[in-house]
Amino acid sequence: MITRSSRAVFAALAAAGTLLAATAASGHGIWFAKRATQLAMIYGVGADDLDAVRRLDKLTSFAGYDENWQPVEAELRVSGVIPIVDSAEPVAAVAAAMNYGIWSKTPDGEWHNAGLDKHPDAVTSERTMKYAVYLAKLPTTAVPLLPEQTLQVLPVGSIPEQKGQPLTLRVYYDGKPVAGANVLADYINDPDQTPLTTDAAGEVIVPVRNQGQNTVVAYFVVPSSEPALYEKIEHRASLTFVLPHLPE
């Protein structure tokens, strides 16, 4: 149960996150998408589909689930330039988490995979955590909070089957709804959009953008746990689902 005091704590975190995340809208994330009928893990932002294979060593968890949200044996297998989901059983959903480490941006505009101890002149520094949930088909039961998803975007009620219809989302941080999280309704086709912000209940209403793949992203920034090394921690989570198109 969320008490008045806990709401106050989350409100304070949200205020800090809003200030710290002013320029974070187009940062990189992870999500899942079909590639030649295979389900692949993508790393990038917008149309930038970058080298996910090279970043597999940063994954901290990967899991597959059946329609009842029971774990299914699954793994990510490298296939050429992309990692694909490999499972002997059908999967209704997959989830992944990635610790992308500490990064600092120096005055020359370059990013370095190191902290303030190595780059004390950095204009910004952060630890970045990335999460992804993919729904293979529109769920008939509530999507649960999943292990390792410190930040997670959940649909409230059913997902509409037509683009343009409103979709209510609730963003959770550490298992609780969080106010002040920023939400991008279409991370792939419009990554530079002005984000919407979750309310006191952690909710936001977005239009379903595509009659096809929809990748919604939320990001939430909290203060550093190691200020001598970095200034903030950015958590970035995607929720991907696909709306059916008319039969051919």
Would you write up a description of this structure?
With 248 residues, this protein is mainly beta. It has one domain. It has one helix and 18 strands. Strands 4, 5, 8, 9, 10, 14, 15, 17 and 18 form a nine-stranded mixed beta sheet that branches. Strands 11, 12, 13 and 16 form a four-stranded antiparallel beta sheet that branches. It has a three-stranded antiparallel beta sheet with strand order 1-2-3, with no helix packed on it. Strand 12 and strand 13 form a beta hairpin. The longest helix has 17 residues, at 4-20. The radius of gyration is 18 Å and the shape is globular.
Q: Indicate the structural class.
A: mainly beta
Shape: globular
Tally of separate helices: 1
Number of strands: 18
The H-and-E topology, N to C, reads as HEEEEEEEEEEEEEEEEEE
Strand content: 35-45%
What value does the average pLDDT take? Answer: 91
Distance between the termini: 48 Å
Largest sheet: 9 strands, mixed
User: What helical percentage do the residues reach?
Assistant: under 10%
The figure for the number of domains is 1
If you compute it from the alpha carbons, what radius of gyration comes out, rounded to the nearest whole angstrom? 18 Å
Low-confidence stretches: 1-23
Oligomer: single chain
